[in-house]
Design brief:
The protein has 20 helices and 6 strands. The protein is mainly α. Helix 3 packs across helix 7, helix 7 packs antiparallel against helix 8 and helix 12 runs antiparallel to helix 14.
């Protein structure tokens, strides 16, 4: 296998579970389940199909004769008819009723929807496990003050846990989108060549109600509530766009998280896991590169761009169908799911092993805190009889000079010393130091995290506790 291209999504990133969902075996087993559902439905609605024929179909449903199908496809250049032929070879009694009244999209499109739903279930499960791990992290560090940034410039303090709650909140939005799109999935059903059900109307001797009932029964047999009420030969390709839009949303959230971790690792405040024998650089042995977070960003970028494929495909379909969707769908939909699967495994792995350095966090915060405390210092001085406008100007002057000392001279921030030495403020260094407790400046950050976890996250996790407890191993 080393003499031909191998997809990195399979070799390096996606789990075995997600790879199986998009495997030929899953696809062709589902085709056979759909042919059985069609035969059962047609029998129930009065067509002359025997119990023996259906039993024969069921007996061979998992024993797929791939070599027969491959050989036949080389001859007829049609994948569905090749598998109808192969199934018929195993089921001589039922051969004549396999695929009765259906067009290729009966198995092709219905299977695509079924597979996407299975893949969404796995995405949902992993998303919930990331949320669970991230909630633990947010709770652990909800009271640890840290320097917050706007424009990546020092701003008012927040807490490490509060920042994590921002990552969590975006994942909750993604979970809501996943749940919504799963609830909206419908099968194509048995719509015929152009979506008119003409072949089924002929089979059922002009009985419109039986045509409608066929769709309802096939949907139930395959575990769906309904089929699309109208279609051309295919389901609307906008469905693929809607599904991949949800995956793109998860990728956006993961990318944001990975960027923050990469920046924090540069600041030496928080690091992603780094294993004992891991090599950070081939040249610089001391380096600890955030390669997992970088990989999250890299794969996320791929998913966000990949969503353009079904969008353009949906926009360019002609009338009841064209086949320029097929080759594109075979690539764009599975690869989006395989990439998201890898992203969520990486996300779970990184969160599970995050390393926090409180001393570094405190040091950086304390170096900037005097500037942020100036409003409190000024208000205290006003209470003691000072002039607000005069004090404001003095603080501005002292701040500019202290900033110059830090940036130009490379010296420590001496703003507090300057204020303590200025009689206009009437305060001592001890009093100023007392103000410098970082917890005085984080506002409601700890309370917000507690409320968010109690009111939003824990009910979600409790409702889905049966899928929690996953761990993620990454391949490289």
């Amino acid at each position: 296998m080393n003499d031909r291209y191998q997809s990195p999504l399979s070799e390096r990133y996606a789990s075995k579970e997600m790879q199986y969902i998009f495997s030929p075996d899953m696809k062709f087993r589902t085709w056979r389940k759909l042919w059985i559902a069609l035969a059962e439905t047609e029998q129930e609605l009065g067509l002359p199909i025997t119990d023996e024929q259906i039993a024969e179909l069921k007996a061979a449903k998992d024993d797929i004769n791939y070599e027969v199908a491959k050989a036949r496809e080389k001859e007829v250049r049609h994948d569905v008819m090749s598998h109808v032929y192969a199934y018929g070879q195993q089921c001589p009694t039922a051969k004549g009723i396999i695929h009765l009244g259906a067009t290729s999209c009966y198995v092709g499109d219905n299977t695509d929807v079924i597979i996407m739903r299975e893949a969404l279930y796995l995405v949902r499960k992993k998303l919930l496990n990331v949320i669970s791990e991230l909630a633990k992290f947010a709770d652990t560090y909800k009271e640890l003050p840290t320097l917050a940034f706007t424009h990546f410039q020092p701003a008012q303090p927040t807490t490490v846990g509060k920042r994590a709650s921002l990552w969590l909140n975006e994942l909750v939005m993604d979970l809501s989108d996943v749940d919504y799109i799963i609830s909206q999935l419908k099968l194509l059903g048995s719509k015929g060549t152009t979506g008119t059900q003409a072949s089924f109307l002929e089979l059922f001797d002009g009985d419109h109600e039986k045509c409608k009932e066929a769709d309802r029964r096939i949907a139930r047999k395959m575990g769906f509530d309904a089929c699309f009420p109208v279609s051309g030969q295919t389901y609307s390709r906008k469905l693929d766009t809607r599904v991949l839009n949800v995956l793109s949303g998860i990728a956006q959230s993961a990318h944001k998280f990975s960027n923050d971790i990469r920046l924090l690792q540069h600041l030496k405040e928080i690091e992603e896991p780094f294993e004992k024998s891991q090599i950070g650089s081939s040249a610089m042995a001391y380096k600890r590169n955030p390669m997992r977070s970088e990989r999250i960003a890299s794969l996320s970028r791929y998913v966000m761009i990949d969503v353009l494929n079904p969008a353009i495909t949906a926009a360019t379909q002609w009338f009841e169908r064209t086949l320029d969707d097929s080759a594109n769908k075979r690539l764009s939909v599975p690869e989006a799911f395989l990439a998201i699967d890898g992203i969520l495994d990486l996300y779970m792995n990184v969160v599970d092993g995050l390393v926090v350095y409180p001393k570094v966090i405190e040091q950086r915060l304390m170096s900037e805190l005097p500037f942020m405390a100036t409003e409190n210092i000024m208000m205290d001085a006003v209470k003691r009889g000072g002039d607000r406008q005069e004090l404001h100007e003095r603080i501005r002057t002292h701040s500019m000079e202290a900033g110059r000392m830090v940036k130009v001279e490379g010296k420590p921030n001496d703003l507090l010393e300057r204020i303590a030495a200025d009689p206009a403020f009437g305060t001592t260094m001890e009093e100023l130091q007392a103000i410098m407790n970082p917890r005085n400046f984080v506002g409601r950050a700890p309370e917000q995290v507690t409320e968010f976890l109690d009111e939003v996250i824990r009910p979600i996790l409790e409702e889905n506790k049966e899928v929690l407890g996953m761990t993620a191993e990454i391949n490289v």
